[in-house]
Amino acid sequence: MNLHEYQGKQILASYGVRVQRGYVAHNAEEAVVKAKQLTAETGTGWHVIKAQIHAGGRGKGGGVKLAKNLEQVQEIAGQIIGMDLITPQTPPQGKRVHKVLVAEDVYYPGESETKEFYMSVLLNRGNGRNMIMYSTEGGMDIEEVAEHTPHLIFTEEIDPSVGLQGFQARRIAFNLGLSGEAFKEMIKFVDALYKAYIGSDSSMFEINPVLKTSDNKIMAVDAKVTLDDNALYRHADLAEMRDITEERPIEVEAKEAGLNYVDLDGTVGCMVNGAGLAMATMDLIKYAGFEPANFLDVGGTADAKRVETAFRIILKDPNVKAILINIFGGIVRCDRVAQGVVDAYKNMGDDIKVPIIVRLQGTNAEIAKELIDNSGMPILSAVQFQEAADQVKAALS
Ligand code: GDP
Ligand code: MN
């Protein structure tokens, strides 16, 4: 689950990480109120207005702007809220902005002593260890740094049995070219950041930029956080941070129905039990010369109700030209699934306008095939993978 910048900063602050302070506002008037409040608390006269959407590169798209007085706060917040912000990380049509973060300006005007760094904590799946990735080249696209100047990206692997060690935090501060007060500040920053990452069961914390202010404070100016969905049950407070307006509606609906669904760009919808078989089925579709419209794992209990829900979700995608159902009956019997498919089909009446190909393999597969073939419904059945691929081809050619 992804978070907004302001939510990521809340988590960071709760673990003692210094962050650029700010408040969320939903309209221009509220932005002015929040700016006044911030001035009272921090003494800042200038504010940055930052669009809150689940995508990076907001600065480039015009979603991060400096306001030098309250009139500008009102004007800029008014401009940004309601706009469709297009960044390199949004869909081509952009993402609608519903709220902004009104933050203190931390790049004190007139000073050239600030420095931006890059830092992220993430899981290295290659060796199953957490690592801190960091660079002197902050504020820029880290992918670009990796491509053109890979020697400027450093990593620090953390041994899970002992956690982040003092010498590692010192090495980071050293490699970033810091000394004196800023060096000590960076050590505290890294330590607290790592605690926040571990404590919130996150799979990624990306802080770009980490700022060294003109008075040698180290702080998080941005925060991109991905929480581990499988650990959310341990964090009721973090689970509440979910913003479903940022997620694809079709995926939200599937999640509510308990289905594992990922929307894709192809034309062949698939309904499968088990993630492994779902992947194999997507390969099968590609092998037949087409692209999958989705990934969908209906899980172990493929009864009529679940199959119907899955049908409805798949058919919401206007690109779907055929549906391939591929079920392995190991624990669940194939004839029960077949009955489920037939019943769901009956229930949906005229709503299904695309060919359906069903491949059932495993316990009672023959009975299941008979059931489908004798149902009187225009459902095509297959037993072998190859057969299923051929039928998809025939249905779409
Ligand atoms: P992103 O573009 O989505 O990564 O959003 P960021 O939060 O990283 O902000 C983009 C850029 O805005 C940063 O790299 C900074 O250069 C700039 N920025 C952020 N906060 C401030 C601020 O307080 N003052 C000034 N002058 N610039 C800021
Ligand atoms: Mn950023």
From TrEMBL:
GO terms for cellular component: cytosol; succinate-CoA ligase complex. Pathway: Carbohydrate metabolism; tricarboxylic acid cycle; succinate from succinyl-CoA (ligase route): step 1/1. Coiled coil: none annotated. It catalyses: succinate + ATP + CoA = succinyl-CoA + ADP + phosphate; GTP + succinate + CoA = succinyl-CoA + GDP + phosphate. Substrate binds at residues 273, 330-332. It is an enzyme of class 6 (ligase). This is Succinate--CoA ligase [ADP-forming] subunit beta. Keywords: ATP-binding, Ligase, Magnesium, Metal-binding, Nucleotide-binding, Tricarboxylic acid cycle.
